[in-house]
Amino acid sequence: xxxxxxxxxxxxxxxxxVIPFVATTISAEAQAEGDVSFDSFHDQLAQxxxxxYSDRWGLVWQPAGVSDAFRPYYSRGRWxxxxxxxxxWSSDYPWGDIAFHYGRWVNDPDNGWMWxxxxxxxxxxxxWRSNGQYIGWMPAPPDRAFLxxxxxxxxxxxxxxxxxxxxxxxxxxxxxxxxxxxxxxxDQRSFADNWTFVGVGHMxxxxxxxxxxxxxxxxxxIIAQTRNVTNxxxxxxxxxxRSIDLHVVERAAGHPIQVTAARSVIRQPNLIMHADxxxxxxxxxxxxxxxxxxxxxxxxxxxxxxxNRLSAKAPPPRNGQAASxxxxxxxxxxxEAQSHFHGAPGRPPGPGPAGQPGGMMGPxxxxxxxxxxxxxxxxxxxxxPGGMTGPxxxxxxxPETRHREPGQPAGQPGGMTGPxxxxxxxPEIRHREPGQPAGQPGGMTGPxxxxxxxxPETRHRQPPPPAGGPDTMTGPxxxxxxxPETRHRxxxxxxxxxxxxxPAGAPPHRPPPPPPQAAPGxxxxxxxxxxxxxxxxxxxxxxxxxxQ
Length: 548
What we know:
Blueprint: H1 2-35, H2 38-46, E1 49-54, E2 58-63, E3 77-82, E4 86-91, H3 96-99, E5 104-108, E6 112-116, E7 126-130, E8 134-139, H4 144-147, E9 154-155, E10 166-167, H5 178-182, H6 188-192, E11 196-199, H7 216-225, E12 227-228, E13 232-235, E14 238-241, H8 246-253, E15 259-260, H9 275-288, H10 304-308, E16 326-327, H11 335-338
Parallel strand pairs: 3-15
Antiparallel strand pairs: 1-2, 1-16, 3-4, 5-6, 7-8, 7-12, 8-11, 9-10, 13-14
């Protein structure tokens, strides 16, 4: 008995010591996720640069106090090798823990380097090239997955965390996307300005100004002679940089390279985030503030909340030219600026990771409270289901009163409407399956473009009731009774003598009228096919009766 009691006390003590540890771990992770958001990044970076809105990229940040020759991952920092995340960019800039480990950089010919917010942490978002003699890196530009809100990394076909190489959408594009965004004007010389190339043995130097290749023509040649060796991997739910083999660098340098812990060379260790959490935040934020695609005027119009977070002033002139195609708080809402934004607008913040379901907004742009009243089927146009709107253009009330059968005209089932033209609320005969086009199920058409007759199980429709029939009864004052069930009927589907169903659109089958009733005392009607009897002539009064 004492042993059992002792074991129970020991188990209770262990549980009491584990619970605070688990709670502390969960709390620390939740706190870290709270530090990685647009609001957090905005507030920390606003004091070091300019938040502006680009008509190519959407919301971007540009650092202040840097020269026109500024290039990310070049000055005021270096590569160090960490035992946990591989090659890690250690920056001396006070904003480096965010802008060099989250998001993407793009070199805009008109406005210089811009940072596009992203929310997946990495030891450094750059692409790598090498040929055994030189190693080069360039700030990783945004690819399609990043701009589309899928996150910074994609591992194979799914986002797994047991390992696997990170793939980028421009792996086979020698310009890494730049030629598609800026056209032929972004030539090889412009592309060479994005790169830093050093001898393999200088990879871990404390600075690169003295060892980097400066001749643009030589850089162009080196780019052509090297291959893409970019290799990021997700290990234990963290992004790891395995692009450059440490031992190759040590052999070329002639001495061992110091291996350190990343948390000892980063100012804010709390910003080192799990990859799955970063991808989730990326998808949430992209729904609120989506990016452009890089081509002119592809950015969506910024919401009022985004405009309010922009800087009041534009970045200073670059190479003697004022900033162009970027807008500040004072200019982003102007009609001239709005004419530049042609992308799909984002959703307002609301319940769930991407605002309200369906991305619909209330009359004043707010998120309606009831989720079930905001649902609309996929691939369905704005407004109510089927694209219907109310008299003042508003979205009609809850969806259950707005569904209708595929191919069925607006109004009540069968095209009927109530006394004032309103649609009755019967949901079961107006529901359309998600993603199904208007018209018959499957959206098929016949050889001449007509809609073929539906399958037997999908042929049920509400024919208009015959005049004076039970479905058109009226009250004492001639009004239509309000209850929809008094107007609903579902007659059996008629078939032809051969057994086939009538074609779609044919008038409903009605039974033939009964034969007229014979008058009392009249002879019974002749059977079908019997010749009519001969009429007997009436004898005249002066003629003798016929001989029998």
